Fold this protein.
Amino acid sequence: MLIKRPSDILPSEITPRPFYERRRSLIKLAAAGSILGAAAPLARGVRAQEKTLGLQKLDGVAKSAFSTKEPLTAYKHVTTYNNFYEFGTEKEDPAVYAKRLKVRPWTVVVEGEVAKPRTFGIEELLKFPLEERIYRLRCVEAWSMVIPWIGFEFNRIAKLVEPTAKAKFVEFLTALQPDTMPGVKLPVLDWPYLEGLRIDEAMHPLTILAVGLYGEVLPNQNGAPIRLVVPWKYGFKSGKSIARIRFVEKQPKTAWEAANPQEYGFYSNVNPDVDHPRWTQRRERRIPDFFARRETVLFNGYRDQVASLYAGMDLKKFY
Amino acid sequence: MQPSPRTLSALKAVIFILALAPLARLATGALFFPDWLGANPAEFITRATGDWTLRFLLLTLAVTPLRRLLGWPWLLRLRRMLGLFAFFYALVHLSSYVAFDHVFEVTEILKDIVKRPFITVGFTALVLMLPLAVTSTNKMVQRLGAKRWLALHRLVYVIAPLGVLHFWWMVKKDVTEPAIYAAILTLLLGYRLVAKLRERRGARPVARPVAQPRPNA
């Protein structure tokens, strides 16, 4: 398969972190001056991340040509506005309650239609060659972010376990820790959270398992210690805190599809032409903007890379 | 208990200021302290003003049961203000949706109203509040006559359930919050129903209603 590189960036164009941080503090200073005026909200667009949670740093992270050069969403917003229903249905809940999530010891069981089923310890997974992937994230709720993930392509795992010819889909199961997850007491979704991809989607080089963001390991609320990131699909397809991966023959019934099939399909590719029954998907709000002024783009702007996966498919039917 | 006219005016002033506090917080956050409103301030404003619309609607509907149960007829004097605040927050709620979610794109908004049931009921509730707000003045009560005025203002029995339904249908999966509003609303409307049924059966009303529901101070 020929994978086209995104045209919007060269590796050399990615600004090293100390530079953009310094630049941002300057912008912040300038913004501070305007805060007395009503123009403050307008300045928020350029104002960016200040400090991180100071988690374990990830070293030797390579840059990637798949990264976008759009301005990053501030760390504080990436880590305080989360959908992680195991910790509550409000966006602020995960940042408060996911602190309790036990992320060590952690294993990821890889099983199903594979020649060499295997259980990976998180320490092993952290030793995979890591890359920074700055991806757009488009939530089905019509907001979006730009996040500097750190991780590796999922197909690396697949190559190690050797999927059989019967493996047509891949299931990703989120850990289920009833004693640390207050949200699973409510039957909001079927727990554990199950997501799935067609095998060619899973093997696509844009599909990564992320172990970090902003240069550090993942905060719990973002799906520590390891999560899926599929940037051309709505955010809920990217399962968090993955404990089990299954290669299967049949298309899985994913959590949101099971909960509400009229509103959430298996594919859930970002598509401005397929409305959510309760709101339009034409536009999106880039966090923390006030106005939802961005036009949503098919496949979240990764069309050149992924459109071939869906050649000849009716995307309105397979939403 | 019957407060003096001075106490009552003071009480009204206090409630007026308290009722504006949520708006003051949102405005201050939006203009000066973005962190108050979190990562998605527009959503925060839309949700908060929606919440306050429902809360003021329920407060308005609580006046009758409370004044009867507590024997405080003067509570009626607060009702107009509470109802008008419900309408006021509904307007801010709508404006926030029109401006932030749709960036004033009228065709998209119209499509929403027609196509999406939760918007349809929310918008209907707001439209139905309009005649109530317009006829809330003393002059209008006189002009309509108490009977017709009362009949018109019974629309609130439609508006409040539509508002709660709007919230219920908006929620993605966890309906705990709308269920709480629905339970309180059921209680408030159920009280009236029971009182009515008892009256009809010739029993004494739950407590003596005030002679003539004068909506105004």
Q: What stands out?
A: Confidence is low (pLDDT under 50) at residues 9-14, 29-50 of chain A. Chain A is about 20% helix and 20% strand. The two ends of chain A are 24 Å apart (CA to CA).
